[in-house]
Amino acid sequence: MTRRLVCVGAGLSGLVSAYAAVKAARAQGTSIEVTVLEASARAGGNLVTERHEGFLIDGGPDSWVAAKPEATALCRELGLGDAIIETIPENRRVYLAHRGGLVKMPEGVVLGVPTKLGPMLRTPLLSWSAKARLVADLVLPPTEVPEGDVSIGELVARRLGREAAGAFVEPLLAGIYAGDAWSLSARATFPQLVEFAKRDRSLMHAARAAAPKRHAGGAPPSAFHSLRDGVGSLVDALVKALPEGSVRFGSPVASVTPGTETRWRVTLADGSHLDADDVVLGASTHLAATLVRPTSAPLADALAAVPYTSAATVFFAYPRRALAHPLDATGFVVPKREGMRLLAGTWVSSKWPHRAPEGTVLLRGFLGGLGREGALDRPDDELVSEARIDLERLMRFRAEPLFTRVYRFRQTSPLPSVGHHARVAAIRALLAAHPGLHAIGSAYEGVGIPDTIRLATKTGDAIGRG
User: Fold this and answer.
1) Per-residue model confidence (pLDDT) at position 461
2) What is the pLDDT of residues 206-261, one digit of tens each?
3) Does the pTM exceed 0.90?
4) By Cβ atoms counted within 10 A, which residue in 103, 337, 352, 425 is the most buried?
5) Are residues 314 and 410 in the same domain?
6) Percent of the chain scored above 70 by pLDDT?
7) 431-437: long-range contacts (C-beta < 8 A, 24 or more apart)?
8) Is residue 318 assigned to a domain?
9) Are residues 206 and 123 in the same domain?
10) Does 428 lie in the same domain as 300?
């Protein structure tokens, strides 16, 4: 008997879960029919790669954390092993915006926590009172870590002071989550720091002990991996690996309700329906909430309780001669205290090889984020202008771009705020009452590509094994 799986959404979650289910079923000699329903005309969700005039542009995420093996392993499994690339060795550093300019991040900062005192005492990024407060971390009595949740900003500020947390942790989290350090959960974002705080009286000492060791005289190891042809090539490989016709575009789902002949019925916006033994909700939790509300209002409410924000990326191509800055880093992050519209910037052609033609550069700016989602309602030319003003101010140049590109990601960035694990546990408990219904994605166990792949693989494998 052939089992039927329907995945809602052809983003990374839906594609990987379908792929894992097919693989698991084949391994044990059983049959499974998978259908991936996608409302838009393309697969990949936030993973979007385009080529334009010789430039390679990843509109959304452009990489994954190398220390988490799931994405790299999947790429190798799909035949993309030779296409995996690392960041350009000589540029493995980052700048911070400071008083309208750019200052290099002091050496030895791990997850926003300093591990070397000397660079901290020399940096202009902190006042002398903040530096004194930082030193106190080495001698103050242990700080009790609450049994419940706490914001990452508060956790770090208790040991290092609020100014240091605002200078290093806050912009780092804004760049990753487009959120706020004082509301994001420490346990959900950087659980390593929670363990540091439990294990050692000094947060700096614990971070230093856990920091990866540098090879003498060499560049630090690449913290990120990507693909030679952009992260969109992973999406293409997943679609190709599925049975032909499995992915249906232009197929928005209206509801997921209990079936009569099978466990579930998936009704599309055009009134047609699919019967399924298992349904994977790979969409955002707020979209999933609308789909399951006819079945379970409590589950819908729990899904809808996960907060999200929106962000946009703006790309600029320039002749290299137009910029005097050495562009000797992967980019920069912007502390909130700078009062800028940009959250962060990537010097794409300095971060990755072969992203721009010879003699040109490609830059990316991030706009929007928590409390500033309204930026996405403005037309492209206004977003370009806002990002350009901050870029030119920070990098001390003025030039007409060769071209610009704008990508909007509305309500696609989950915010794991304080209490996140409890919210996810509530969702899982309610799902347990509905066998065959699965909710996965970046809102549950981590926002990164490897985190998404890990959860989707685990889910699809379990479905495929029956």
Assistant:
1) 98
2) 989 887 765 555 667 899 999 999 999 999 999 999 999 999 999 999 999 999 98
3) yes
4) 352
5) yes
6) 98
7) 431/299, 433/296, 434/295, 434/296, 434/299, 435/263, 436/263, 436/264, 436/276, 436/277, 436/278, 436/279, 437/256, 437/264, 437/278, 437/279, 437/281, 437/292
8) yes
9) yes
10) yes
